[in-house]
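tool=predict chain=A
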Amino acid sequence: MRVAFFGNSQSIFSNRHFKALMDTSCELLCVVDVPVSKRNSTNPAKMNFPDFIGVAHQQGIPVFEPDSPNQKDFVEAIGNLSPDFFIVVGYTNILKEQILSIPRIMAVNFHASLLPAYRGKHPVFWALRNGEKWAGLTIHVMDIGLDNGDILYQVKVRTRRDDSVATLYDRIMPQSVKLVDRLINDAKNNGLQRTPQSEEGASYYSSVHEDDFGLDWSKDAEMLARWIHTSPNQCFCKIKKHKVFFMDVRVIKDVSDMIPSILIRVGRNSCTVTTGKGLLRLYKGQIDNDCIEPMPDICQKLGLRQGELLH
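tool=predict ok
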């Protein structure tokens, strides 16, 4: 089975599945990385093994980093390799019809959602942001639509209240990497079973932007805590012209009717803020790009006192 691998060398998601691919009996023809400018990830690589670009260089496997996978010279180069399969994991550029027609068998994508829900970018991030009870991964056939091709395999994982993007990926991937070998073997034995996607329950999400991390204290404390757990030390609010980032939070149930964003308590190890519903106890944070420190220390540095509004 002759395979071309597409991924993002700065993503654990891409690299874990590439590592599993290297343990199969396939012939790896080349690896394709996204351009440097697009190697951001909601689950960046922190691994104790080389990324797939490093492995490819070590083993003399061709490496491609096209600005667009649909440009003529790249399409010709990949076509000349005569691949049976494209395996795409965490590759963020869209493959159009001409290049998708190249593999002898098919192009497949590992998408970290329970399709048809959460088509598009950063599905684990958005699933947690929206408080989904279940998440997972779908291996699907790629076609000219976006994440809407026939389903080959799925794994389903229960989310947890305190999940971050990283912790949820850590529970999805041990199950999904096992499917790499199964995919290769089923393809060899003509055993791939395709199930068309339903449009019922379909949803689409796009890129994550800085504005998505800004906190609005008028929202529900449960939702704000979920956002902070999903992306620790990325969610922020602007206080006295500084960006203050938060992590380590706890929801305090409260039925009193108070104006949101009031700093009602500064304790020894935490501070407590009013929200649109309930209270939010904040334990650690960071001012701009300074070090992470206890919230009472941050309050002291910013001159914040009990009873003040956080703005």
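The domain at 210-302 is CATH 3.10.25.10 (Methionyl-tRNA Fmet Formyltransferase; Chain A, domain 2). The chain is about 25% helix and 25% strand.
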